[in-house]
Specification:
GO terms for molecular function: iron-sulfur cluster binding; metal ion binding; molybdopterin cofactor binding; oxidoreductase activity. Belongs to the prokaryotic molybdopterin-containing oxidoreductase family. Helix 9 packs parallel to helix 14 and helix 17 crosses helix 18. The longest helix has 19 residues. The chain is globular, with a radius of gyration of 25 Å. By secondary structure, it is of the alpha/beta class. The chain is built from 26 helices and 27 strands. A 7-stranded mixed sheet has the order 5-4-17-16-15-6-7, covered by helices on one side. The termini are far apart. It has 4 domains: about 70 residues, 2-Layer Sandwich (Phosphorylase Kinase, domain 1), CATH 3.30.200; about 260 residues, Rossmann fold, CATH 3.40.50.740; about 170 residues, Dimethylsulfoxide Reductase, domain 2; about 110 residues, Barwin-like endoglucanases (Beta Barrel). It binds ligand MGD (2 copies) and molybdenum atom. Molybdenum atom binds next to loops. Molybdenum atom (MO) binds next to loops.
Amino acid sequence: MTDLEKRIKAKIPGPDTGIEIRRTMCDICSPGMHCGINAYVKDGKVIKIEGMDGHPSNDGRLCSKGLANREYIYREDRIKTPLKRVGKRGEGKFEPISWDEAYAEIAEQLNKCKKDYGPESVAFYSGYSKWYRQILRRLAYAFGSPNYGCESSACYTAAFMAWKVAAGEQADGDWDHSDLFLGWAFNPFYSSYMQARHAMELKEKGLKFIIVDTRRTPATEKLADLFLQPKSGTDGALAHAIANVLIERGWIDKPYIDEYVYGFEEYAQYVKGFNESNIEEITGVPYAQVVQAAEMIHENPKMSFNESSAPICHHRNGLQNYRAITALLAITGNFDRIGGQILTPHTYMHVACGFPTREEEYLYETKPKNTKLPIGAGRFPLWDYLEGEMQSMDLSRQILEGTPYPVKGVFALGLNVRMFPESKKMFEALRNLEFYVDTDLFMTDAAKYADIVLPACSSFERGEFKPYRGGLAWYTNSAIEPIGEARSDVQICTELARVMDLPDESLKQGYDYFIQHYILDDYHVKVEDLKKVELPVKIAEVTPYVPMQDLKKGLKTPTGKFELKSAIIEQHPEWGLDALPTYKEPLDDADPEKYPFVFTSGSRIPNALHSRLHKVPRNRSLRPNPTADMNALDCEKIGVKEGDKIEISTERGAITVKVKPTMTVPEGLVNLFHGYSEADAESIMDENHLDPYSGFPAYRSTRCMVRKKEEA
Ligand SMILES: Nc1nc2c(c(=O)[nH]1)N[C@H]1C(S)=C(S)[C@@H](COP(=O)(O)OP(=O)(O)OC[C@H]3O[C@@H](n4cnc5c(=O)[nH]c(N)nc54)[C@H](O)[C@@H]3O)O[C@H]1N2
Ligand SMILES: Nc1nc2c(c(=O)[nH]1)N[C@H]1C(S)=C(S)[C@@H](COP(=O)(O)OP(=O)(O)OC[C@H]3O[C@@H](n4cnc5c(=O)[nH]c(N)nc54)[C@H](O)[C@@H]3O)O[C@H]1N2
Ligand SMILES: [Mo]
């Protein structure tokens, strides 16, 4: 080997080796992360990746998902050209067409839906990807449809709504200054490793932890000073019982409550119902531990709480349970105080970057007026009142039933059918559409139902504006040319807006126009200049936090106070919702004799992200089969050992997976990750097992039966 060959083999960058380091970003998980990546590129191909040193998210590190990027972007089933369906829906038979043909067909068919049934008959949907959402929303509104909606119908928004009900805005934990961290459904070792590191550092410095989880996890083992293990979806009752002890013993901040909290007397009366006589039966948590939690809260006055964008709210009583937990902060005076929970207006994509933007203006200024209500608004009035977008959990029902009005077209970016409970209903709905476009990197089962499939490019093949906490901003550049004819989602939406000549000049100007004029103008930063910086740069000073300022000024709630009793709900008795954070039983109404186990699905695993990485060989090899965790004693009872197959059945259907006997889940619980096409957790859930407050699906609490599946 020559010296040069050796250098190429070692992937050493330089003009002689032809290897260049380009800076890009991992877009596989959520906007709260988005780690920096050095992509080593040779001859237009990424040959190596590593975490970017000095990047505010990851500073040189990458997780098992981030490290998958190279295999992910080069997955064999990447869609390379626009496609037109030639077979039956779902069959997967397509022929390539040009972009011009695709746009022309989409324009014609969407306009036909509009003409025949009205603009609201077309829904604009986005799956988990987020970076283009402002543009997709504008596209929907420019078309005249109120039906913009997304995966956030099942993620984060319910927690956001709980905060809006209580405090008018989202509040984040100031855990750097807390004495006690209430890690309620807190699994950062698997769901966000940077938070796990941070938690471990704070633990070293003396921060105390209460961890509340249905399972044993690294957090319960490494962080918890007290571990409470409630039954799925009983969190509200548990929080009320803790509150009751705090109130009975006078361990609350009465002057603070008198001044800044609304509805305390009624709330205090209500939580009396959760006590020594019933709490263990409802939640499975011994009363002594409830008292211990209250004692810890009393002894460690500054307390904050994690955000929890998913598990607390993935129950039919989820939003109320979330409110019950936030109430603990209010009664102990830990809202709008140092070391407690602090209002953090989310300045961009719900991430608190520390600088105000005009994102909201861009999102809502063109929302059509005098149209029909968005999908789901009638069924989930609080959702509609607070969010005003489509509650996507009602989409398949409305397509199939046509009430209150017909929905005949769907324009989707990254639709995953296996995100919708009773997923076969969504497949059926897609089959019944008059026109359906899906845009994805891969030929998914959802894409196979589409009339037109468009190829989207990955974060390596395009640029993206990206702010980070601390007033930082970044704009990535593409590291490689798009694979095949793939285009970026924002390019697709804006080109379509131009082809259709929709009445929105800002939208037609494109993504950079939005970033420049609505996000950066106030900071005198130019998009072109931002594109030239290597690492995120500070564009704005973050205003220092002033304790109690928001409370003194008055919160954005009807009473201006922290509302234990929601004035919004009180003012709308016709909604049939409770103004107090009342507790209701989470499980569905199936016969407990016939379905003695509880099926919970979703708890994050390190190597997978929803449906995205199950087909990436390296990640798949870490967990080759969809596998359900069951308590070892339960396994003994039903006569299965590690690797045996079990059938999990509910009133909606059955799936077969391998079993993993473990002590991490309690007796009675069956835990399975989701997103697998061959073992679709959603297929055995009920599409109507939803939270009436938020519309969120109860992914984590369905009664089920389990039996050994004999090999055929
Ligand atoms: N059982 C169960 N189900 C759950 C959950 C649970 O806990 N349990 N969690 C819920 C939560 S919190 C969430 S956030 C959702 C996840 O929501 P999903 O939308 O199901 O998420 P993904 O499977 O990651 O991605 C959807 C699609 O987007 C495609 N995609 C990726 N990048 C791009 C892109 O840049 N452009 C386009 N157009 N497409 C792209 C992917 O290939 C994929 O097909 O799942 C929910 N589903
Ligand atoms: N590796 C990986 N990371 C991810 C994702 C992924 O798919 N894979 N998804 C991303 C997304 S979209 C989201 S929303 C976040 C979610 O991030 P997390 O909220 O951390 O997600 P989970 O691990 O599902 O749930 C956290 C913990 O809640 C527990 N839990 C489940 N049900 C209950 C309950 O009823 N009560 C209580 N008290 N605890 C319960 C689970 O056992 C789990 O340990 O993760 C993000 N990060
Ligand atoms: Mo999520």
